[in-house]
């Protein structure tokens, strides 16, 4: 078995025990990337020579970062995350030559933890939408079926992880950008509690929903990564919750029949394993409008100066326009509603209870579609409407994690989402680990088929 195919936790152990060198792991990841990237296109702005110098330094000096928890692991940063001295485009031609002078705090944390950085991971333009394509770096394809979306906006991270080109990857999440691609690519993505992850101060104090977070191939890998971000023990013990609350559709969302089938099978498997299951509807009435208002404020705040740039994706221009037109009363209501929904969440979910829902309302969709316009016969008018199974759970501010759960009839990954009480992230990881013991970890995609695929034979992504 290639070192690229073992978990990040096992890679760390092998490097610590001298059964694997950092350079050997890097070579394995590079070989994997070189065989799959011509089709998947998950990694961008690559610098293998820089990574080789980092790995060689770790191998040459055992005293270099000897206690670093991620020593020698191969990583890439999402192309929304500033890395000093490295081109960071945000997926936009407006920033095609942008090179930051200051790194995001997570970049520095991961460097101190001993990681070997190989480059960036692809993202939609400015992270808008859960389908990873942009005019700078192109389309990222799903490694399970390259005619399907890898999700987004952390689609490059999820696809590269699934292929084994990386040990771990960071992502960001506002409306599902860690969770949706994890579901689509058969890996694990954790959206931590709002405000718990180090980062730059928001441009507006009312903007607290967006967060960075960890992605990995197993819950244990994500727990290892999460501990680096927030401190604490680097592993968790699987422990099921006192009660598992279940809502397949939040009471009113359209959900693809294949997703419904997988969720039902998961609930049955967990029940058969002794989990106490209760049907429930989360108290999220009003979350959609609250989310959309504060999301629009975020776009106007960060990108308002670009509102007339015709090169921007149409959906981004729409978000900016709506944000610039927001009145004070609407913003005041949205902030109050966010506060109310967090209080309702605290009352709804006890410290040892977890909510299970679908991660995504649909399986991975064709790459030629910019976004999902219909689910269960219901027309969706906005590019974020099909993501509400995630975006609603952003608003209360608690942690949510997507783990692999099953397969569509076409063999596409489908994940479930587990959501916990605010600031009980570690407890949620324990529950996710217990669920993983029942459901199993995500297998490796058909890499040989990917390597043999002719990219020119595949359908193109959205054209704009």
Q: What labels describe this entry?
A:
alpha+beta, 11-stranded mixed sheet, globular, 464 residues, two-stranded antiparallel sheet, Amidase signature (AS) enzymes, 14 helices
List the helices and strands and how they pair.
Layout (H helix, E strand, L loop, with lengths): L7 H9 L5 H19 L2 E2 L3 H13 L13 E5 L26 H8 L3 E6 L11 E2 L3 E2 L1 E2 L2 E5 L5 H9 L4 E6 L5 H7 L2 E4 L19 E6 L2 H12 L12 E4 L10 H16 L4 E3 L7 H17 L10 H11 L3 H21 L4 E6 L15 E2 L2 E2 L8 H7 L5 E8 L5 E7 L5 H15 L7 H6 L12
Parallel strand pairs: 2-3, 2-8, 11-12, 11-13
Antiparallel strand pairs: 1-3, 4-5, 6-7, 8-10, 9-10, 9-16, 13-17, 14-15, 16-17
Question: Overview of this structure, please?
Answer:
By secondary structure, the chain is α+β, with helices and mostly antiparallel strands. It contains 14 helices and 17 strands. The chain has helices spanning 8-16, 22-40, 48-60, 105-112, 155-163, 179-185, 219-230, 257-272, 287-303, 314-324, 328-348, 388-394, 425-439, 447-452; strands spanning 43-44, 74-78, 116-121, 133-134, 138-139, 141-142, 145-149, 168-173, 188-191, 211-216, 243-246, 277-279, 353-358, 374-375, 378-379, 400-407, 413-419. An eleven-stranded mixed β-sheet has the order 1-3-2-8-10-9-16-17-13-11-12, sandwiched between helices. Strands 4-5 form a two-stranded antiparallel ribbon. Strand 16 (400-407) and strand 17 (413-419) form a beta hairpin. Helix 5 (155-163) packs parallel to helix 6 (179-185). The chain is globular and about 60 Å long. The mean pLDDT is 97.
